[in-house]
């Protein structure tokens, strides 16, 4: 060993912070470090397998038996984990073990700071930071590694105590691969027991396809032997009739690090023009960063049982980003770049088929086990709504999956399907009515709903931010059109009694007087009998931008055209009857302005100038 080439480096600032958090905060499940190191070894072996098959010119073709080996040195209080995977170059050691290049690190650090201790271990493994979990149990971590393309006798040694610095030097290493030596803390001696190591591997790594061996030493015979611990067979390649429920659940835990069991899963082998196996899981809970712009998602991709990549997003649309699992194809060409893979006709066929399969799984669940489906919807409903706009080809089945709250449902929970809504429509009803608002309560208490409650017509209450955008794409269901109750519509007028036409004629002078006062502030003024307890409301014209859409544009910093509302007056309301009798023109004008302002306030939840509104109310109180 030559000390002259030894160099000391400072950890990237994010690594320092991460190491501090891991060592001092992530103590709820210390054993997770072993799972992470074995997973890294497994990935390294899968990579060398791939390289040897598809880039044979770069690597020697000696016989190769992949293995991960673990040995315990009780006397020196060390655990040694070694693999004969692809290894790392000198530059890769500095890049991979000294920095965190993966995006989202800051979000990760903020998240684990604000998370209960018992839940923090869930995040290890999700950000490419699994290696650093070694410092939870170790005082010093040493990494000996040599890249498979390195034909010299030298490799790299990386050493750190996890306190801000690490050293890197060139050392003699015969074979390619990586060996990690953990010098355990005095408080972590339990991990020096073989039975404990076996227990952890059975729990977390039983389905890894590479054999994991542990060193046994017979005190009597002084003989060292290696014992295989894990099953070492890819679960998806087995006949699904021979796989237990527990095995499926264990494999899900292994590939996702999720502490909860999956909600449902589907395992299929497809033969014919395209041959592939897929094992797909629907989680019970959402990943914490599901709404993060840089959220990593997708399936694990294997081709002919050779691992290709994590998070292969090409096989699922974005609105199904919560789905976990693997796809193992026999048809994808491997000597191509990922960009070409994205454009492959086989990839497009697989994406289309997998999307339809997942939607069918969810649709079947909604029919066969509504209680279980409701649990799914409560967690992932917002994501499914994205599919209405993103996936026109499957819009019909996605619409079947949607759930809503409504005025007749008497529950904030979104549990009403469109099929149930249309099955219960009254005979005179020709459209599916809905209202969009900022919250469930504001939607439920909107004056627009008064006639619907009176006529026993159900209205869908949409209060998620995505709803207004979604309804621009969801125009009908089973040939029945949707209609916003806050927009002008002839079908609604037909539901309202027309016995008041004579009264309308008598009120024409009153309406004309209002129009002259409001002028270009409104698009129109008219009488309505859709209101019961409210003197007036405003609507948008059928072709104009809705109030909710204007709010979305405004929140996004987009310019919006000024909305000119239609003011509808309820002639039966006591306040309207009182205003009609007002003779003083100034007082009458104030009342009309007040009607418009309070109607806009009820519709938008805000006014451009609330001070004028308050002054107007005060002036009318004084009169």
Description:
With 623 residues, the protein is α+β, with helices and mostly antiparallel strands. It has four domains: 15-228, Heat Shock Protein 90, CATH 3.30.565.10; 235-377, Ribosomal Protein S5, domain 2; 402-485, 3-Layer(aba) Sandwich (Rossmann fold); 498-622, Four Helix Bundle (Hemerythrin (Met), subunit A) (Up-down Bundle), CATH 1.20.120.790. Helices cover 37% and strands 20% of the residues. It contains 22 helices and 22 strands. A hairpin with a 7-residue loop joins β4 (138-146) and β5. α9 (345-368) packs antiparallel against α10 (370-390). It is found in: Cytoplasm. One of its GO terms (molecular function) is ATP-dependent protein folding chaperone. ATP binds at residues 36, 40, 83, 88, 96, 102-104, 126-131, 178, 338. One of its GO terms (cellular component) is cytoplasm.
Rg over CA atoms: 33 Å
Give the CATH H-level superfamily of the largest domain: Histidine kinase-like ATPase, C-terminal domain
What is the terminal separation in angstroms? 98 Å
Low-pLDDT stretches: 101-105, 117-128, 335-340
């Amino acid at each position: 060993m030559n000390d002259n080439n030894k160099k000391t480096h400072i950890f990237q600032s994010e690594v320092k912070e991460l190491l501090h958090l891991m060592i001092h905060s992530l103590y709820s499940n210390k054993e997770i470090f072993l799972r992470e190191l074995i997973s890294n070894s497994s990935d390294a072996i899968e990579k060398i397998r791939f390289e040897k098959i598809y880039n044979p010119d770069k690597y020697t073709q000696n016989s190769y038996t992949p293995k991960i080996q673990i040995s315990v040195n009780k006397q020196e209080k060390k655990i040694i984990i070694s693999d004969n995977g692809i290894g790392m170059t000198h530059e890769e050691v500095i890049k991979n073990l000294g920095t965190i290049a993966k995006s989202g690190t800051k979000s990760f650090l903020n998240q684990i700071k604000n998370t209960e201790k018992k839940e923090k271990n869930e995040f290890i493994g999700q950000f490419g930071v699994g290696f650093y979990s070694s410092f939870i149990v170790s005082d010093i971590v040493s990494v000996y590694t040599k890249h498979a393309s390195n034909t010299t006798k030298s490799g790299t040694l990386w050493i750190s105590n996890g306190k801000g610095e690490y050293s890197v030097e060139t050392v003699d290493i015969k074979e390619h691969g990586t060996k990690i030596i953990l010098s355990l803390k005095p408080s972590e001696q339990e991990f020096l027991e073989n039975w404990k190591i076996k227990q952890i591997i059975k729990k977390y790594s039983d389905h890894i396809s590479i054999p994991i061996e542990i060193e046994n030493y017979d005190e009597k015979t002084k003989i060292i032997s290696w014992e295989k611990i894990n099953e070492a067979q890819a679960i998806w390649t087995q006949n699904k009739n021979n796989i237990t429920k527990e095995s499926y659940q264990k494999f899900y835990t292994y590939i996702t690090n999720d502490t909860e069991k999956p909600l449902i899963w589907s395992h299929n082998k497809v033969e014919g023009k395209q041959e592939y196996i897929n094992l797909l899981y629907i989680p019970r809970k959402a990943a914490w960063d599901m709404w993060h712009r840089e959220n990593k998602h997708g399936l694990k991709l294997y081709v002919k049982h050779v691992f290709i990549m994590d998070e292969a997003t090409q096989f699922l649309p974005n609105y199904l980003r919560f789905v976990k699992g693997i796809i193992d194809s026999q048809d994808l060409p491997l000597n191509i770049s990922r960009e070409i893979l994205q454009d492959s006709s086989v990839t497009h066929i697989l994406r289309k088929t997998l999307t339809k399969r997942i939607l069918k799984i969810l649709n079947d669940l909604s029919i066969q086990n509504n209680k279980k489906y409701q649990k799914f919807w409560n967690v992932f409903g917002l994501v499914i709504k994205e599919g209405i706009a993103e996936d026109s080809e499957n819009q019909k089945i996605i619409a079947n999956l949607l759930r809503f709250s409504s005025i007749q449902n008497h529950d904030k929970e979104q549990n009403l399907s469109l099929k149930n809504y249309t099955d219960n429509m009254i005979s005179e009803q020709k459209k599916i009515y809905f209202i969009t608002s900022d919250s469930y309560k504001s939607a439920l208490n909107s004056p627009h709903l008064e006639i619907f409650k009176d006529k026993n017509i159900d209205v869908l209450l949409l209060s998620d931010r995505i709803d207004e955008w979604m309804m621009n794409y969801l125009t009908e269901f089973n040939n029945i059109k949707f209609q916003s109750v806050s927009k002008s519509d002839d079908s609604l007028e037909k539901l309202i009694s027309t016995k008041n036409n004579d009264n309308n004629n008598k009120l024409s002078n009153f309406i004309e007087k209002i129009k002259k006062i409001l002028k270009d502030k409104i698009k129109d003024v008219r009488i309505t009998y859709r209101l019961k307890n409210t003197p007036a409301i405003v609507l948008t014209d059928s072709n104009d931008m809705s109030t909710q859409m204007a709010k979305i544009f405004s929140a996004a910093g987009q310019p919006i055209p000024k909305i000119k509302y239609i003011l509808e007056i309820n002639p039966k309301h006591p306040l309207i009857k009182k205003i009609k009798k007002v003779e003083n023109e100034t007082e009458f004008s104030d009342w009309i302005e007040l009607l418009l302002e309070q109607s806009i306030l009820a519709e938008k939840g805000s006014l451009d100038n609330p001070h004028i509104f308050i002054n107007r109310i005060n002036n009318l109180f004084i009169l």
